[in-house]
Amino acid sequence: MDNLELQKTANEVRKGIVTAVYSAKSGHPGGSLSAADIYTYLYFEEMNIDPKDPKKAGRDRLVVSKGHTSPGYYSALANRGFFPVEDLKTFRHVGSYLQGHPDMKHIPGVDMSSGSLGQGISAAVGMAISAKLSGDDYRVYTLVGDGEIQEGQVWEAAMLAGHRKLDNLVVIVDNNNLQIDGAIDEVNSPYPIDKKFEAFNFHVINVDGHDFDSLRAAFEGARQRKGMPTAIIAKTVKGKGVSYMENQASWHGVAPNEEQYKIAMEELEKAGEALCQK
Predict the structure, then answer these.
(1) pLDDT per position as a tens digit, 110-149
(2) What is the mean pLDDT of residues 172-191?
(3) Could you give the angle at the alpha carbon of 228 between the alpha carbons of 224 and 229, nearest 5°?
(4) HSE on the CB side for 26, CA within 13 Å?
(5) Rg of the chain (C-alpha set)
(6) Percent of the chain surpassing pLDDT 70
(7) With 90 as the cut, is the pLDDT of residue 59 above it?
(8) Which residue pairs, CB below 8 angstroms and at least 24 apart, start in 82-87?
(9) How far apart are alpha carbons 23 and 95 in whole angstroms?
(10) Which residues on neighbouring strands pair with residue 175, listed in sequence order?
(11) Less Cβ crowding at N or C end of the chain, within 10 Å?
């Protein structure tokens, strides 16, 4: 898929995010929107997956360690064909399989239940070790938040990944610089993020998380690097694509009202139309 098609797809993923959170009257739009381009690249370009066979043994795995960004995760899965896009409107409703946090037992395409921050990366490291022990060639990806890496367990997992030379593991940090209480460097600064991962024996790549050329080069670089895991530090904008949500910590975990929903969808529609003119 070329970059223009990826941009169009990412715009559809963003529409799904806004629709899901609005329909639920709850959820986490900010970090879902910042990661939308990452989700899109993973599911439409990078990962070896098959929506018709979600449990295929040799598939690549994604663990969404920052599980509260499930609207972005679900929208990418739906747009990739794992389940109907229409089902995004049932997000967080009683009886819906699309729960607030990813559930591997009920959602096609979800490889690991997650939501307790800091823990998903440990599961991803375990999966990567399993592949090495079994001689399998699938790759494991995990998406963590920059606020999430304040958790100690993240670094325990990173230590093991570096020690075991897990070159089949890619950790993507969604570095939008905001968490629920404000700017991450004011709450509990994890900077410099790249130097920390380097200290744990990771190959580190800094990228613009909204630029598909940069993402493409980063993931290709991760595939080529042997003998060590890769950390992709993706600089992103929280709320990306919806003007009034961008760079606003207040949109970490708040749903838009009807008027705000209409504005957001109008903006995304216009963005989609502009892409179609290219």
Answers:
(1) 999 999 999 999 999 999 999 999 999 999 999 999 999 9
(2) 97
(3) 85
(4) 8
(5) 17
(6) 100
(7) yes
(8) 82/51, 82/54, 82/108, 82/109, 83/107, 83/108, 83/109, 85/16
(9) 14
(10) 235
(11) C
